Amino acid sequence: MNVDEFVSANEPADGGRTFQLESSKLLDVALDGSVIAKAGSMIAYDGDVSFEGKSSAEGRITGFLKEAATGEGTPVMEATGTGHLYLADQEKKIQLLELNAGQSISVNGNDVLAFESSVTYEIRTVESIAGFSAGGMTNVFLEGPGTVAITTHGEPLVLRPPVRTDPSATVAWSGTTPGSHVDNALSNMIGQSSDETYQLEFTGSEGFVVVQPFEEQTPQ
Predict the structure, then answer these.
(1) Are 19 and 85 in contact (CB under 8 A)?
(2) What is the CA radius of gyration of the chain?
(3) Of the candidates 109, 142, 138, 110, the residue with the CA atom closest to the CA atom of residue 126
(4) How many Å apart are CA 98 and CA 144, to the nearest integer?
(5) 119-125 contacts: CB < 8 A, separation 24 or more?
(6) CB atoms within 10 A of CB 153
(7) Averaged pLDDT of the chain
């Protein structure tokens, strides 16, 4: 294609939504106010936009210093102003979720890309997952109303409880709370220590769990 065709084919699409996908891996935020985004996810912006770093995804937009105190947390930034903000994260696929008032979802901290300022958020830790990390598994609890953008390596799979999942491949869950399960048979079968020995166990029949065809590296 010639230059004009290239520009026309790849320039941002017009749309009336605050969160709009320009591609499966690039989010266009039509900013008129403020939005919370993963630190380092901005690839471009236009208009009058300012950025403020937040210590971690805890305590709504004010944040607390949990990350500095314990080494846990999800660094985030607040973008404020008017214009278009373009976000991406390591070519991961972006999933847009609309949360109604009172609806909530818990997301692995590394998989939160952005959410509207109307969404409340709090960092939480799933304790007692032996072998996964010393402090447990950190996730971000998000409650609507508002739009949330999360990321996955490849296409996600949504499962209904009861189900057990590898913590390293678990992206999010809603309407259910995980416990921990240790399966020594997997370790014995493989013949060495494996992250698959330690699992998240979702019981009951309510809610859903999101997994991805990729295992994130275990935090050290």
Answers:
(1) no
(2) 19
(3) 138
(4) 8
(5) 119/36, 119/143, 119/144, 119/145, 119/146, 119/147, 119/148, 120/60, 121/36, 121/57, 121/58, 121/60, 122/57, 122/58, 122/59, 122/60, 123/56, 123/57, 123/58, 123/66, 123/72, 123/73, 123/74, 125/72
(6) 17
(7) 83
3-state secondary structure of 5: helix
Asked whether the bond before 162 is cis by omega within 30 degrees of 0, the reply is: yes
Task: Using DSSP, state whether 188 is helix, strand or coil.
Answer: helix
Distances (CA, A) of 203 to 1, 98, 108, 166, 207: 54, 25, 19, 15, 10
| The residue count for the chain | 220
Amino acid in position 100: N
Q: Which of 46, 71, 171, 158 is nearest to 113 (CA)?
A: 171
Number of H helices, E strands in the chain: 3, 16
Give residue for tokens 């799979």: 157
Tokens 């499966």: give the residue. Answer: 24
pLDDT, one tens digit per residue, over 59-92 is 443 343 344 333 445 678 899 999 999 999 999 9
